Amino acid sequence: MSRPRPIKAVSVRRRACLALGAAAMVPALVLTAALPAAYAAESTPAAYPDKPVRFIVPVSAGGSTDKIARVIAEKLAIQWGQTVLVENITGAGGTIGAARVARSKPDGYTLLLHSDAVVLNLAMYSKPGYTLDDLSGVIRAIVNPQVLVVKPSLGIKTFQEYVALAKQKPGEVSVALPTSGGIAHIAHEMVRQRLGIQVNYIPYAGGAPAATDVMGGHVDATIITAAAVTEYIKAGRLIPLAVTTSYRSPAMPDVPTIAEVAVPGFDVESWQGILAPAGTPRQIVEKINRDVAAVLAQPDVRKSVESQGYGISGGTPQQFDAALRDDYARYSKVIKSSGITLQ
């Protein structure tokens, strides 16, 4: 891959206020503010960062994780006065990019911006190339509910009616999955196990085609990242039944949670966050945590994120590490008990 030409600081400042959806769809982007004339061979925690920082994003350019990475990178480039490179390293469900970071030098200059898939892949792949012990949580940046939606012609308006229909017609209700073994699949499988329903899962290569086929009437339902279908819900093209988080989505406050209407304590939250190689100095991890939290608190960033249905998370590195291990324990149990495999 050829190295893209750095973008000058004035250009960064102009683009930093753009919404997530306007992020450039390119394989890699270099964001440069005023750079020092030379870089020291080794950095100390007190001096960090004193040379370029690279974010590895293990998904294709243009997706939600990639867009979030670029917004954060633009702001950090200004704040740090350093080049911040966003590089898309895709393949094997994101495991190649995650493994690359896990094997990188633990100095804070190679970071991973990933989603809940970094945990799910550990249970789905026999040789993902990394373990949770190889990575250190920095900050859980963005969170978002999954939402169960159905085609209008199905004739149901509530989650209770959905469950009743699935029980009345076991295996006949078709559910489009944005990906087999993804967070949406796990969430619906948890519902299925708790409520004793049977559905017909249909895996898709992403959320967009899954939602399109539901809107087209070819599939009955899908469970998908709420931010991906907020506009379709507002337009009446999809009927929302419930969200998977313990809280209602600010973007659709009238849609109840699954915990409210059927399964007390139910809580599945998708997220995007930043991780570093294990062994990265604690002072550097905490500085990145503070600086990213400051970026997410900026009014233009918050407005951009929330307008698309996402929520700002934050928290400490220790809290993120604990959440990663809790997610792995919960989700790997569901994957094993239900026999979910990659398709």
From TrEMBL:
Q: What residue range is the signal peptide?
A: 1-33
Matching entries from Gene3D superfamilies are given as: Bordetella uptake gene, domain 1, Periplasmic binding protein-like II
Checking PROSITE patterns in the record gives: TAT
InterPro entries linked: BUG, Bug_dom1, TAT_signal
Q: Alphabetically list the UniProt keywords.
A: Receptor, Signal
The record ties this protein, via Pfam families, to:
TctC
Family indicated by similarity: Belongs to the UPF0065 (bug) family.
Q: Which PANTHER family match?
A: BLR1237 PROTEIN (PTHR42928:SF5), TRICARBOXYLATE-BINDING PROTEIN (PTHR42928)
Tell me what this protein is called: Tripartite-type tricarboxylate transporter receptor subunit TctC
